[in-house]
């Protein structure tokens, strides 16, 4: 056990810090804020491209894909440094973190060149089409159909909760290609450009307020998609899903750590009850970091424990939610402020995460619902970590 | 930082587990509780293995590994008091085969000629009735006193394996050579981390027993561990144990490195252990149903050890109050 990183990791961090100090875009350049998770303003596109060109966008990637072949531990300190400074490296987080990553893992060379690199260089943006009205926690029951017709797939069906779809150029879409196979076996993954005839996107507002529009329903009516847009082998989509989300999961807990860190920095306890809740959040934040770094060290040795990551998600997402509820409660009548009026504008971070306590509390449910609800995580921990029998 | 055991520590943990499984089995704990069986032989095993020599703060993680396993086994010896309460207050006391306890408050030292006279009665002294030596914290410093000099009365407590005593000092004369120069503040970090580690071990035992029970107990034609209401409580117990364990080892690590965060880390460890036992005791006893509500079931030992830990050295709420005052950012 050690309290500090090895020197080569600290050197790496120092090099990144120096890059940030030199190249961070000043606030004056940021003339417009991002409006959705696939809306990247021009200045933020330049910022993302600059990181790509210097190998700092996803340091674990090889140089041709915006990285520098960094180790997992180096990738971790890269994210820690961004988090510490409250900086977003991309305003298209799913495009960069999941869509492009999936293409680099499962795509053809042509798909990497045609789609992954432009997404990473912020020339285009991408969203992820997984959930459907009837397929949420039970994702494998998805029903959007794709039928091969010559050199095209014909897609019919509907996605929902598709974040940023109305601003995205392309959707990484999970579709059913074999309706007769067991449900996990007949799924494939298609890149569907949103400009394709038959694609209809209907954005809708979240519980935060009528101004907060990121989610979409996406309808596919006889959408013809070139067969060349199939990502990974036919009917092997479940493996792609696990692979692309698996990568994300290794460091997903960091985002809950960020929410907790922000709470710890921003909340001023007003009395003993506040202080008590505050201290609990401090314990949660430390424990999450410690357990997360242990999981990371394990993954770096090639012993990824996917079920164990559920412990981190459960701990982090629920801790953040508890803390933020306390902060809202403690704010009294000031906590009533309309969310659209409360977020401080900080150009390098999605400022919604720094809005009113109401907004932060409400958004904390994204942590306990998205990416496998807390109930699903508990079942995973019980059955796959603790070895309890399945029903 | 990267928070995982190095290969030597993993090896150490494995060998400690083996020894504890062989030398301190549930049957021995049961015999101590029911028949007052002697624990001297077990203590000698620990001493013979060198476990009582782990008094250098640099070895705090190795000591924590022992304490976790002993907490899990409901160790009936005065190991915790000796190693985490007495030893830090009596550096250089030597004689690692002898047991010790700490008197943390209730005793005053009055100057008398070249020495001092200790007066007062300390309450709730862990192993105060059976330790060979006592380290006594007073306003004039810390003194090491032989147990023969004091009158100790074991208190009846709910944990049948735990020794807690009232220790009376009726004018005990001590000299400069008995004064240790230890810093009680720093010693307290080790005591807190040690108690936290013990509680984490006890909570792990509660979880293990509970898992075994819900896997084998059938109702409505299925193992009750297949019901989500049961599974989700078990998952929460696991999360609580992992959280408390991480913070307890972090405290040990800051002690080993003499890191400035050691004070807050020790408070975090004790607070998290307290929160952990609250959830794990509650869910564990609940999931065991009526079967856990008996003297006969070994669940009681781990459960009472975890609960007793919360009563000693300040509970979770007290430590949270300190954390709230001293922590304003996550420094990791």
TrEMBL record, chain A:
Gene3D superfamilies: Acyl-CoA dehydrogenase/oxidase, N-terminal domain, Butyryl-CoA Dehydrogenase, subunit A, domain 2, Butyryl-CoA Dehydrogenase, subunit A, domain 3. Residues 128-223 form the Acyl-CoA oxidase/dehydrogenase middle domain. Pfam families: Acyl-CoA_dh_1, Acyl-CoA_dh_M, Acyl-CoA_dh_N. Residues 8-122 form the Acyl-CoA dehydrogenase/oxidase N-terminal domain. Residues 279-386 form the Acyl-CoA dehydrogenase/oxidase C-terminal domain. Its cofactor is FAD. Keywords: FAD, Flavoprotein, Oxidoreductase. InterPro entries: Acyl-CoA_DH_CS, Acyl-CoA_Oxase/DH_mid-dom, Acyl-CoA_Oxase/DH_mid-dom_sf, AcylCo_DH-like_C, AcylCo_DH/oxidase_C, AcylCoA_DH/ox_N, AcylCoA_DH/ox_N_sf, AcylCoA_DH/oxidase_NM_dom_sf. Belongs to the acyl-CoA dehydrogenase family. PANTHER family: ACYL-COA DEHYDROGENASE, ACYL-COA DEHYDROGENASE FADE29. This is Acyl-CoA dehydrogenase.
TrEMBL record, chain B:
Transmembrane segments: none annotated. Keywords: FAD, Flavoprotein, Oxidoreductase. Its cofactor is FAD. Residues 194-326 form the Acyl-CoA dehydrogenase/oxidase C-terminal domain. It comes from the Bacteria. InterPro entries: Acyl-CoA_Oxase/DH_mid-dom_sf, AcylCo_DH-like_C, AcylCo_DH/oxidase_C, AcylCoA_DH/ox_N_sf, AcylCoA_DH/oxidase_NM_dom_sf. It holds the Pfam family Acyl-CoA_dh_1. Belongs to the acyl-CoA dehydrogenase family. PANTHER family: ACYL-COA DEHYDROGENASE, ACYL-COA DEHYDROGENASE FADE28. This is Acyl-CoA dehydrogenase. It comes from Prauserella endophytica. The lineage of its organism: Bacteria, Bacillati, Actinomycetota, Actinomycetes, Pseudonocardiales.
């Amino acid at each position: 056990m050690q309290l500090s990183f090895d020197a080569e990791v600290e050197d790496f961090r120092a090099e990144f810090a120096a890059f940030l100090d030199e190249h961070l875009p000043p606030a004056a350049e940021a003339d417009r804020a991002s409006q959705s998770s696939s809306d990247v303003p021009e200045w933020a596109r330049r910022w993302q491209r600059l990181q790509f060109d210097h190998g700092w966008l996803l340091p674990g990637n090889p140089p041709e894909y915006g990285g520098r072949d960094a180790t997992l531990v180096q990738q971790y300190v890269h994210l820690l440094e961004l988090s510490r400074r409250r900086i977003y490296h991309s305003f298209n987080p799913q495009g960069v973190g999941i869509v492009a990553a999936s293409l680099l893992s499962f795509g053809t060379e042509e798909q990497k060149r045609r789609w992954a690199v432009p997404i990473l260089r912020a020339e285009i943006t991408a969203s992820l089409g997984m959930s459907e009205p009837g397929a949420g926690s039970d994702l494998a029951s998805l029903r959007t159909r794709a039928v091969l017709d010559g050199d095209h797939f014909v897609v019919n069906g509907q996605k929902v909760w598709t974040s940023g779809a109305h601003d995205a150029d392309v959707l990484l879409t999970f579709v059913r290609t074999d309706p007769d196979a067991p449900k996990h076996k007949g799924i494939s993954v298609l890149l569907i450009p949103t400009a394709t005839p038959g694609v209809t996107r209907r954005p809708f507002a979240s519980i935060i307020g009528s101004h907060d529009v990121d989610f979409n329903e996406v309808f596919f009516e006889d959408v013809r998609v070139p067969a060349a847009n199939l990502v990974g082998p036919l009917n092997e989509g479940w493996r792609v899903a696990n692979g692309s989300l698996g990568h994300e999961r290794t460091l997903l807990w960091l985002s809950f750590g960020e929410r907790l860190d922000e709470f710890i920095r921003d909340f001023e306890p007003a009395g003993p009850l506040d202080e008590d809740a505050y201290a609990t959040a401090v314990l949660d934040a430390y424990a999450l970091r410690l357990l997360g770094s242990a999981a990371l060290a394990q993954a770096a040795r090639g012993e990824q424990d996917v079920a164990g990551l559920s412990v981190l998600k459960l701990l982090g997402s629920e801790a953040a939610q508890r803390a933020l509820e306390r902060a809202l409660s403690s704010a009294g009548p000031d906590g009533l402020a309309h969310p659209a009026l409360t977020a401080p504008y900080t150009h390098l971070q999605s400022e919604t995460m720094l809005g009113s306590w109401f907004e932060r509390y409400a958004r904390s449910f994204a942590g306990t619902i998205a990416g496998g609800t807390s109930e699903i995580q508990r079942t995973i921990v019980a059955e796959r970590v603790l070895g309890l029998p399945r029903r | 930082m990267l928070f995982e055991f190095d290969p030597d520590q993993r090896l150490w943990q494995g060998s400690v587990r083996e020894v504890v499984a062989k030398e301190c089995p549930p049957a021995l704990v049961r015999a101590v509780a029911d028949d007052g069986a002697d624990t001297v032989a077990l203590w000698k095993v620990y001493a013979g293995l060198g476990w009582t020599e782990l008094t250098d703060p640099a070895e705090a993680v190795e000591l924590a590994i022992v304490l976790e396993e002993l907490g899990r086994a409901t160790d009936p010896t005065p190991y915790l008091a000796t190693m985490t309460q007495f030893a830090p207050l009596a550096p250089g006391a030597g004689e690692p085969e002898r047991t010790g306890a700490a008197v943390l408050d209730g005793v005053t030292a009055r100057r008398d000629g070249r020495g001092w006279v200790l007066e007062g009665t300390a309450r709730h002294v862990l192993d105060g009735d059976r330790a060979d030596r006592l380290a006594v914290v007073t306003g004039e410093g810390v003194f090491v006193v032989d147990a023969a000099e004091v009158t100790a009365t074991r208190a009846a407590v709910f944990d049948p394996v735990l020794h807690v005593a009232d220790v009376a000092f009726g004018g005990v004369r001590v000299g400069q050579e008995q004064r240790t120069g230890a810093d009680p503040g720093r010693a307290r970090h080790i005591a807190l981390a040690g108690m936290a580690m013990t509680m984490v071990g006890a909570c792990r035992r509660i979880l293990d027993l509970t898992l075994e029970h819900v896997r084998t107990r059938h109702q409505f034609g299925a193992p009750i561990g297949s019901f989500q209401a049961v599974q989700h409580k078990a998952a929460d117990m696991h999360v609580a144990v992992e959280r408390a364990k991480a913070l307890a080892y972090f405290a040990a690590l800051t002690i080993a490195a003499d890191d400035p965060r050691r004070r807050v880390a020790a408070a975090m460890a004790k607070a998290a252990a307290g929160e952990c036992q609250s959830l794990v005791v509650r869910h564990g006893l609940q999931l065991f149903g009526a079967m856990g509500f008996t003297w006969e079931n070994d669940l009681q030992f781990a459960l009472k050890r975890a609960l007793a830990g919360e009563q000693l050295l300040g509970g979770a709420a007290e430590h949270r109050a300190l954390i709230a005052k001293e922590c304003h950012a996550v420094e990791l």
